[in-house]
Design brief:
Layout (H helix, E strand, L loop, with lengths): L24 E6 L2 H7 L3 E9 L14 E4 L2 H8 L5 H12 L5 H11 L8 H14 L1 E4 L2
Helix pairs in contact: 2-3, 3-5
């Protein structure tokens, strides 16, 4: 997004979700400095902040949260497929919080991609595994 931050909240629960609006996050995935400046304070104490260091000039400073770094931009560029950036990030997240089985990711990709693009599913699944391998702990409580 030009000139500002874009954000989305995802709420996952086995129970009914009463309100889709939240002000404090269990986990925040931060992809630029403006978002880090705006949302670092919104992570619950003991929560997780995952960030891509690309373009980050001031590292996270909180001492009461778990902080992880994932160089997803650099890895996607290194692989020559920048379109899998988001899947690298997803892999890092799933290493820390394995809330979705591989089977359901595969099914979700089949459901969301047109059949003519199903040949890209293995590439996306590989990017998830790469993300699991490159996420780094900066600070763990």
């Amino acid at each position: 997004m030009r000139g500002g931050t874009a954000n989305v909240s995802v709420i996952i629960s086995d129970e009914r979700i009463s309100s889709p609006i939240i002000n404090q996050f269990d986990t925040a995935i931060i992809l630029n400095q403006q978002s880090l400046d705006k949302f670092e304070s919104s992570v619950k104490p003991g929560g997780y902040l995952i960030y891509d260091p690309n373009g980050i000039t001031h590292e996270p400073t909180r001492k009461d949260i778990n902080i992880y770094k994932i160089a997803a931009t650099a890895k996607a560029q290194e692989l020559g497929i920048s379109k899998v950036f988001n899947m690298v990030v997803l892999g890092g997240f799933l290493k820390l919080k394995p809330i979705v089985d591989k089977q359901y990711i595969h099914e979700g990709l089949e459901h969301s991609l047109p059949q003519r693009h199903w040949n890209l599913i293995p590439q996306n699944e590989e990017a998830i595994e790469i993300g699991k391998g490159i996420i780094e702990c900066v600070q763990k409580l």
